[in-house]
Amino acid sequence: MKPTEAIPSRQITLVVGALGLLTLLAGCASTPPLTHPPLAHPPPAQTRSASHPPSRPRPSVPLLKGILLDRVIAVVNGSPILQSSLDQEMNLLSHELMARHFTVPPRKIFRRQVLARMVQQKIELEAAHLHGIAVSDQHVSGVLAEIAARDRVPFDQFPEKLLREHINYMAFRNFIRNELIIHRMISTAVVPNVTVTKGEVEAWLRDHPMHTQVDYHLKDIRIDIPTARNPLTVQAAKNQAEALVTELKLGHSFSDIAVADSAGRNALKGGALGWKSADVLPASWRGALKNLPQGGITAPIATRRGFVILKLLGRKVTEMHPIFAREYRVRQIVIRPTPALPGTAVRQRLLKLRRMLMHGAHWRPLAKAYSDDPTVELNGGLLGWVLPKSLPTPYPKILSHLAVHQISQPFLTDNGWVITQVLGIRRHNVTRRIFTQRAYAILFERRLRHEAAHFLHGLIAEAFVHYLVPWAH
């Protein structure tokens, strides 16, 4: 970062998406702008001595009492953050904390945390705009509908429910949209750079026999090193982490301390990480958790960016057994819409091809002539034996309703419009395949987490941030 003042190390941030949005409770109530006392009248002029000539009379101008309606409190890459925006964000997040029965930090601490969160979000949203990332209203509505369903409220009554809780629906909707945009931006920018080789997967399988699986239910508190790494800042961060461990052992709430002191993106959830497979955790975490009793708290664990404190809420050990599943042998024809061939025309073309196939036409030449499926050149669109869950939505549902040799109606996927045919169904031992997929997912998630953290750190380091209020320094 190239700020006149560095972003404070204590900050509250959220990640939503598929991974976290549906766990959010909350909302936002709009608040009036911060006001200040009226300006005082100037003191009366002193009486001039007789030796001075009388001054030229000035026209009488009425003094208007003013109210400061708003002000700029920070500038991020030339874009302002207003006091009214901070007030609204604080209101939103305080409702979030109270809904979760967490303690809201003292105002002077809380406003610095929220401002730091707003600065980081502004930097991330600006990067998303540069990447051309957007989220449709339909997508936002879908996420809100899932939140409403979780709360057992019909979607059309959801705004009224929020209003009863003093939450501004449109502000909450915009909050969800921003989190979705940031999540999609990170995925778009980082995922193409993450690779896992077949050799790495095989090596992982050799080192992790298929016997048992251990999962941990965790919370964390993260203390980041706020400036360039040097012994002084490392020691300061360690001292802070050790002081927090002392507070926790005296009985202070882990969630409240996470809200007030954690630099993690999950701080507003009281540091909740949910259930995590031991295999995706760093080795230092696994070592600290191995013999920790349920409810226990670890000593500070050193990380690349500071220290982390873990609380173990639960542990599950699952014995692994052979896995049998239904597999489908399928082939497909895929056509992607283009400006010259819109989706409606693509669907009509696939319906025509389907009729031709049902009347005896051969699949391979039609696939070679029309399909955009990359497998066409190799085997005429044949995917071979597949697990439905390994295919994108809505393949699993489509396949479950098809009989052998039946051809589906056209359906839309992320890759385009598709018709598919089931050539066979079998129940098969898929243990090795499942473990291979699991190994790939674990390695991919580890690398993705590291690359995403590096990417976001780079965005913030390159940003210009200037604070205009003394309490933010």
Notes on the protein architecture:
With about 475 residues, this protein is of the alpha+beta class. The protein has 3 domains: about 1-35 and about 70-210 and about 430-473, Triger factor/SurA peptide-binding fold; about 210-320, Chitinase A, domain 3, CATH 3.10.50.40; about 325-430, Chitinase A, domain 3 (Roll). It is about 40% helix and about 15% strand. The chain is built from 14 helices and 11 strands. The chain has helices at about 85-100, 105-130, 135-150, 160-165, 170-190, 200-205, 230-250, 255-260, 285-290, 345-360, 365-370, 375-380, 395-400, 430-460, and strands at about 70-75, 80, 210-225, 270-275, 300-305, 305-320, 325-335, 380-385, 410-415, 415-430, 465. It has a 4-stranded antiparallel beta sheet. Strands 8-7-10-9 form a 4-stranded antiparallel beta sheet. Strands 2-1-11 form a 3-stranded antiparallel beta sheet. The chain is globular.
